[in-house]
Amino acid sequence: MDGTNRSVVSEFVFLGLSNSWTIQLFLLLFSCVFYVASLLGNVLIVLTVTSDPQLQSPMYFLLGNLSVIDLIFCSSTAPKMIYDLFRRHKTISFGGCITQIFFIHAVGGTEMLLLIAMAFDRYVAICKPLHYMTIMSPQRCILILVASWIIGFIHSVTQLIFVVDLPFCGPNELDSFFCDLPRFIKLACVDTYTLGFMVTANSGFISVASFLILITSYIFILVTVQKKSLGSLHKALSTLSAHVMVVVLFFGPLIFFYMWPFPTSHMDKFLAIFDAVITPFLNPVIYTLRNKEMKVAMRRVFTQFISYNKIS
To answer: What mean pLDDT, rounded, does the chain reach?
Structure first.
């Protein structure tokens, strides 16, 4: 397709979350609090993992990178949403919309693979502890991280290739607060049923498949540990509970978006807010509250920071 038709629509209008100023004020305070908390929590994890020599292990390497991904993920939608709550006319340029879609899918795809890598890390640590450092070597961890980003990038670009040159000639209203691919496609001036089904099926299949792989791996770990001893089972349950909570929080909204046959605007928006600002906040909370070593390391970093400021 040529680019002439596409240029008819140069921007899209978000209908936002609500027309009530009272609700918008509440959402503004709510979103600001959780977005700032998400930033601080994930930055704290990254600083702790990179600065504390006792956390230089594959598990914390992956956890630190998960926090980096959460920082990018929440920053791809939350700042624009918060800014738009101040405005009556909420718009985004065509290029801005495409960029937002790209980052959402690239970072989301990368996080899925990183969560699978973290599940594999826990399997090796619990079921093959004597071979842990050999299997999860620093080189392999870096390879896993690079592969996750490459596959996430490919996943995002593959979907955008089919939609970036669609003709848009109006209307240009998105009943959302960010550019999501299914609603974006529906605004095109051509029949996009097949394309929309392909995009939805692609993202939905990847989300469900990744979720099932993760849950199956956790069950396999628990069954394997149970055969060894009851004490090991309790320890494994304590370790894996945080991972399971993060997986459910991340994949729950995604599976609902792409697989639920009766989409509702209000539920979609609620889950979108949850995914944009609450899940990136809960991830560091869950991992720190369930991990004594991380809490001790954070206190050490905080103490060192206070001591450095006093000396300065």
So the answer is: 84
DSSP state of 227: T
pTM (whole model) above 0.85: yes
Residue with tokens 């199956």: 216
Helix (H) or strand (E) holding 173: strand 173-174
For the record, the structure tokens of 285 come out as 């909370």
What is the rounded distance in angstroms from the CA atom of residue 29 to the CA atom of residue 15?
Answer: 19
Please tell me what DSSP assigns to residue 19.
S
Residue 16, sorted as left (phi over 0), alpha (psi -120 to 50) or beta, turns out to be left
Expressed in percent and rounded to 5, the helix, strand and coil fractions of the chain are 80, 5, 20
The two tokens of residue 117 are 């890598």
Place of tokens 């974006």: 184
- According to DSSP, the residues that pair with 90 across neighbouring strands are 14
- Specify the pLDDT at position 312: 60
Residue 312, judged by CB atoms within 10 A of its CB (0-12, 13-18, 19+), counts as: exposed
Q: How does pLDDT run across 45-90, given as a tens digit for each residue?
A: 999 999 888 888 899 999 999 999 999 999 998 999 899 888 888 8
Q: Which of 115, 124, 74, 100 is nearest to 206 (CA)?
A: 115
DSSP-assigned beta bridge partners for residue 174: 14
Question: Largest Cα–Cα distance in the chain?
Answer: 68
Q: What burial letters (b/e) apply to 148-178, b meaning 16+ CB within 10 Å? A: bbeebbebbeebbeebbebbbeeebebebbb
Separation between Cα atoms, residue 48 and residue 66, nearest integer Å: 13
- The whole-number pLDDT of residue 305 equals 73
Which two structure tokens, joined as six digits, stand for 307?
């001591």
- Which helix (H) or strand (E) covers residue 308, if one does? helix 292-311
Q: Which of 156, 188, 161, 164 is nearest to 174 (CA)?
A: 188
> 3-class SS at 4?
coil
